[in-house]
Amino acid sequence: MADVAALEERRIMVAVDESEESIHALRWCLANVLSSTGNGGAASDTLILVYVRPPPPVYSALDGAGYLFSEEVTASIDKYSRDLADSVTEKAHKICKEFSNIKVEVKVAVGDARDVICEMVEKMGADILVMGSHGYGFIKRALLGSVSDYCARNAKCPVLIVKRPVE
Question: I need a surface site. Which of 7, 28, 30, 46 has the fewest CB within 10 A?
């Protein structure tokens, strides 16, 4: 019976960013994972939306070309990053409102997305991590690294990677 209770109290984490792939993964999760209970998700399901902001840039007083960076410039970059995080999480939260019986938590963190997402899985006690895939080819994945590949190997819970259909 403990397994039945565990299924009713799921903590589903979805990593979101400004990409269409992450929004597709969120919609897919809502339609296929949360709706799998037959009633659009159990009343005690918690959907955790995680957005990771890149760390603020660290500049020396002069950049390579000899330009001086002022505090206003770095503050402007940080404000843009915060506004983008607010915009993405607000959009994702609106999508979730179609499922009124699901609790939604929004977490915004700063750092390397790969590490932060895996840390948040543990910290929040996620039962599953859902994320989109940008569909990079082998070369691009090898050069840039893939957040979804890293999380699939390192997260302490099952990871569901949702591919966006080719249009």
Answer: 7
CATH code for the structural domain at 9-53+82-163: 3.40.50.620
Show the 3-state SS of 96-110.
HCCCCCCEEEEEEEE
Tokens coding 77: 């970059």
Domain ranges of the chain: 9-53+82-163
Interval 71-83: pLDDT, tens: 777 778 888 889 9
Q: What is the pTM of this model?
A: 0.79
Q: Dihedral through CA 123, CA 128, CA 134, CA 135, nearest 10?
A: 140
